[in-house]
Amino acid sequence: MPATIRSIEKFWKLGIEDFNTHYFDIDQHYHLMVKEGNYQYDVFDLIKKYGSPAEIVFPYILEERLDNLINLFNSYIKIYRYSGKFFYHYPMKVNQNKEFVLPLVTEGANLETSSVNELKLVKKMWESGNLNSKIKVMCNGPKTKEYLDTIAELKSKDLDIIPVIEDMSEYVSLKSYRGNVGIRLDVDVRVSSHWNHKIDHFGFAEREIKKMGKIKNLKVLHYHIGSQIERLNDVMVPLRSAMETYVTLKKVNPSLETINIGGGMPIPYDRKYKYSVDTLIDGIIKFLSEFSKKHNIEPPNIACEWGRYIVAPAQITIYKILTEKEIIESKNANRKWYIVDGSFMNDLLDTWAIHQKWHVVPVNHMNAKRMAQAWLAGMSCDSDDKYTGQGSYVLLPRLSDLPPGEELFIAFFDSGAYQDALASHHCLLSSPVKLLAQNGEVKIIRRRESLDDVARLFGW
Length: 460
Ligand SMILES: *Cc1c(COP(=O)(O)O)cnc(C)c1O
Fold this sequence. Notes:
Elements: H1 5-11, E1 24-26, E2 32-36, E3 39-42, H2 43-50, E4 54-57, H3 59-79, E5 86-91, H4 98-106, E6 110-113, H5 116-127, E7 136-139, H6 145-156, E8 160-165, H7 168-173, E9 181-184, H8 206-212, E10 218-222, H9 233-252, E11 258-260, H10 277-295, E12 301-304, H11 308-311, E13 315-326, E14 335-340, H12 344-347, H13 349-353, E15 360-362, E16 371-377, E17 394-397, E18 409-412, H14 419-422, E19 433-438, E20 441-446, H15 451-457
Parallel strand pairs: 4-19, 5-6, 5-12, 6-7, 7-8, 8-9, 9-10, 10-11, 11-12, 14-16
Antiparallel strand pairs: 1-2, 2-3, 4-13, 13-14, 13-18, 15-18, 16-17, 19-20
Helix pairs in contact: 3-4, 3-10, 5-6, 9-10
Bound molecules: pyridoxal-5'-phosphate.
């Protein structure tokens, strides 16, 4: 009996909102399909046309995610009759590609910068006259003189820009600044996240902030506890701690009006269910509402900088399986090395850096009957260039079962966050071609690097 599309969908865990796979489906050719409203893209067709490895960007996914997030915050603000406002700030460091930043800004995102170079991009957009005059920009990261000068310049050109003070030297430099400022708190709470370290160098300890007394034009208390925060409580406990500092600060600085909770909303890369964004936002507004009442303060405006959560699902990365190899050390004959035609170390660097897992599915032959337990490796000559190995594997169609002359392609989901800016050129491999799929049309936005492109980076 032929397997139904529904059962194949289930096998590859597609169509599940909690996994962010509800944008994907299987078409009648058993190819991976991406849905944009009533339009659908056959990923295999795109790869046949443009080659692999490839990255495909779907701006409508960004727009939908941001829209949903803003609506969720605003609906809980209504439910709790909360009098503060919500502001989403897109942290540009998560993905600075124009094809990510512009749709988000269009959809109502404010911005957050981590460096002077990112701010220079904001400056470009501001000077072009295309940004709404109400857009707000927060500036994090160490403030070099050039960074501070650019902030002052944009302020003088009427951009609503708020530098966030990270250390004493910035505090001193910004004393002469005319506009509003924020201050960054290093919340003294350790949570379960790869990025929450026992000791780090960001912001001020609570006791330091308390000693500072009055800070001119203080508007925002900002903190960022980490990325990919695994437990709901690990968002709520730091929020409570930061709000205690907020109350103390507010007594000396009545101008304080916004709590910026930073980033951290996770992506279910490894398909483990975490907590829903709905429950979290409900919890945040409910807590802030009760806390403000209890401490008799004006409920603060809420800024959030969830980056990964918004942009990761908007890009997928496609590789071809070049070849398979026996795993000499394995007694299991069904376990094979699958070598891809790109590099994890170059294009999905978090695979190597922090052993991140992604959801991986075939692009074609999704109805295959028999699976191999594949250990995936990249094509650089580095023994660390692998996705799995030493025990874990990905189930993928057996290459020996494919009709003669046919190839297997695979897709890595959720590759839209951080991987581009981290990407590298180990073994002088070229970066993948980058495609944009929008309004039913597909175009190349970065062509595959030629030898000349790559060689030039190395002075050739
Ligand atoms: C990295 C960063 C973010 C984004 O974090 P996500 O985990 O991607 O949501 C937000 N704010 C600051 C200050 C950051 O450094």
